[in-house]
Amino acid sequence: MITKFKIFENVSSIPKVGDYILMNLDIFSKTRQTWINALSSIAQIVEVQDDFFYRIKFDIIEGNPEFENGFDKEGCRTFHLSYLKYWSEDKDELEALVSSKKYNL
Fold first, then answer.
1. Is residue 63 part of a domain?
2. What integer pLDDT is reported at residue 45 of this predicted model?
3. Confidence of residue 4 (pLDDT cuts 50, 70, 90)
């Protein structure tokens, strides 16, 4: 049996442009949690608007009005820092975290 331990080397204390993020779904209602999960579990910061607000780019299915509401034409929306649960420069690290939570590891 092979055991893999993942160490988050590229996690910083303050998110910055280019970092990948996982949303903090605990603060959303159940409807919103489903909605955010349907967009993408991992998104990317494209702009820091001030110390606490971040413009996040999601992969949105074009032509779907449910997902286009509240997003700009580039598929971005602004969120407060409290909505961001994890962030890292490396997308693979967040994918490993999603997988570990999925399989309850």
1. yes
2. 92
3. low
Q: How far, in Å, CA of 49 to CA of 34, rounded? A: 26
Alpha-carbon 81 to chain mean position: 11
Q: Structural domain tally of the chain?
A: 1
| Rounded Cα gap, residues 34 and 27, in angstroms | 12
At 3, the amino acid letter reads T
Interacting residues of 49 by C-beta distance below 8 A, sequence separation 6+: 55, 78
A 10 A CB-CB count for 76 gives 19
Running DSSP on this structure, what letter comes out for residue 64? -
The answer to whether the pTM exceeds 0.85 is: no
Asked if residue 41 lies in contact with residue 70, where contact means CB atoms within 8 angstroms, the answer is no
Query: For residue 40, what are the domain limits?
Result: 20-102
**Using only C-alpha atoms, what is the Rg of the chain?**
14
